[in-house]
Amino acid sequence: MNEIPKQEVIRFPASRIIDVAKALSGDVRIRILEALGDQPMSVGQLAEALGVAQPTVSINVQMLEQAELVSSTLGANREKICSVNCRQILLDLPTRPGDGLHRIETIEMPIGLYADCSVQPTCGMAAADGSLIGSADDPRAFFMPERIEAQLLWFSNDGWVEYLFANPLPPGAELAELRISAELCSEAPSFRMNWLSDITLSINGHSIGTWTSPADYGDRKGKLTPERWRSGSEYGQLIEWHISSSGSFIGGKRSTDTTLAQLGLSFNEPIAVRFAVLPDAINCNGMNLFGSSFGDHPQSIKLSFVRQAQDEE
């Protein structure tokens, strides 16, 4: 086995404290570090030494790898060989609000966890296996408990879904930018490749910008869409809005003059994110919203908080 040289000390910045603390908080992970103290071992050897199932060892090794406390290489028989990276760690404690967070903190919201909605037929929701949640074209399905399992939701004409996000930044932490991304497209019966729809994002009631979807995409199978799904809409486009002190943008192009300061963000208040097709939209042709197991992109709705870089403050 080729042992990876150990550093005597690894210094972690304040933004890594939570990652390292989580990695060190489990009994199995501490026992793995103990076992790896003198020599590298394979996952199978660790499982035998610790008397723990191999899948459990693999999961815990992965957590230690993510915290950069353990590294792995492939052995001669393609087995995973694990080694500790250092003898000691040094943690920099935070000295001001936000230091204990990553520069970019991201919250991913399942599409079925909306706080409120207004939809009309054609409308509906599908689960990860492609089965319908409730009945198609029945708005009541949008208020069933099973909606939390949704991986695709759609409505025609005008309507909206609104999500409430927590603000992870403590008071005093300087925010440079908000980013919101989701996979979306228009909604037509079955599908239509030439079917414009104006989809507007708003935050706390302020318009961030309108993206015009060119189609309800169904010309091919979505990369993640289950085979069972045979109802038309297959995938969308991954669209990102971002808001800074200079305005709001869609895909890097200016969309509105709404700035971060105008959003009225507060540490103790939820952030209302609404995807809507407005009644007065030029192209009022509904919306499909895709979750992490449907469409082309393995994500749900992502809201990212980008802190001001230290040298910019």
From TrEMBL:
How far does the signal peptide extend, from start to end residue? none
Q: Which domain of life is it from?
A: Bacteria
Q: Which InterPro entries match?
A: ArsR-like_HTH, HTH_ArsR_DNA-bd_dom, Metal_resp_trans_reg, WH-like_DNA-bd_sf, WH_DNA-bd_sf
Task: Keywords in alphabetical order, please.
Answer: DNA-binding, Transcription, Transcription regulation
Establish whether keyword Transcription regulation is in the entry. Answer: yes
MF terms per GO, please?
Answer: DNA binding; DNA-binding transcription factor activity
Among CDD domains, the record links this protein to: HTH_ARSR (cd00090)
Q: Which PANTHER family match?
A: ARSENICAL RESISTANCE OPERON REPRESSOR ARSR-RELATED
Record-given protein name? Transcriptional regulator
